[in-house]
Amino acid sequence: MARSCLAVVLAAGEGTRMKSSMIKVLHPVGNLPVICHVMKAASGAGADTMALVLGRDADAVRDAAVPYGNNVSTFVQEQRLGTGSAVLAARTAIAKGFDDVLVIFGDTPLIGEETLGRARAALAAGADVAVIGFRTENPFGYGRLLESDGELVAIREHKDATDEERAINFCNAGLMAISGDKALSLLDAIDCDNAKGEYYLTDVVEISRRAGGKAVAIDAPWEELIGIDTRVGLAEAESLWQQRRRRELMLAGVSMTAPETVFVSHDTVISPDVLLEPNVVIGPGVEIGAGATIHAFSHLEGATVGANCSVGPFARLRPGADMQDRSKVGNFCEVKKAVIGEAAKVNHLTYVGDAFVGAGANLGAGTITCNYDGVNKHVTTIGQGAFVGSNSALVAPVTIGNNAYVASGSVVTMNVPDDALAFGRARQVNKDGLATTLRRRNEDEKQRRQNDNSQGSGR
Fold this sequence. Notes:
The protein contains ten helices and 35 strands. The longest helix has 24 residues, at 434-457.
């Protein structure tokens, strides 16, 4: 039978070193708040219930985190008295009697569900406490994990460690799993007899051993255990997360010309045989179909790109953009809340917003849908097979019929029937010889201004 599991997620830290008006766990990695990554990892590791310990900005953190967890209850840490005290803020949840209790910091967005799963497996194998650690060539400042005969003996803070202990490169990450039937007794036994007068969660290792229990250490990649305390740490976590996600996508059949320049989001969905050229940025809510090409310097957010489509270079797809199969949005184009029908082409220097472009339609360079009147947005409908000439303005609400033709340079304010040709531009008039007269007039005016400036400077 599956073991029950409570994840206690500590998210009450102020994060003052972030120098931010926003609590640190709400800062994004992969366009998802840090706390949400932690909740997802705990869920993936089998935590069927979660206790979220909150402090500042409790409502905002709760609203962000709850959708990513299982059976989430929230608790407020009233006083900052150390990590042991923080965990006990969720006392009523711990007391319900779970097989496993995971303790996770809310600022560790890269923690893997497999690592948390190994900590739980250690409890299932008989350990009372399983502490997650990492190895580093520069352990300065970290608590050391002291082992003997395969068991964890103690966690020694750097300042309290001997020279021999400081030579150990196996360091404490702070995350752990505790046997559910012993969790409260171990936590209640923590005292504050230390320089800071705080209750340290790490003390449960020695408390457990004194009671005849067993503690073990779980070795995890350091990249998973990065905690975010500053903007530098946030940027490092973002970089590592992007590297991980790019690798996953490439192994799944996505090509990237220069992977290090491509940025994706937590919910990005990309099918096999998609090509992402350099400097592509993909925001939240994007799905890209098989065989599509996203050319260099394009930005996508809240958009759907169908199979075998072409985007960019230098294109922007805003929320609501829906490119159907084999359609094209070319260079220096912007599409917002618009359907681009199958095999339709939005070629270059064009804006399409609040619109429907039918299958096979072609929009020439410089075409814009004038969708906003200063108060309301209006829809432009372009029928299948229609051709809109370059430098045309379609003033919504307006419909261009199937297979209709709009002459270049037109301002279209009325509906165009199917198969019709629309001219919406002023008639050209040529004035013979007037260019010479105009040029002389302009040159005379230029000379007059120069003379005025010369006289003024000599006064």
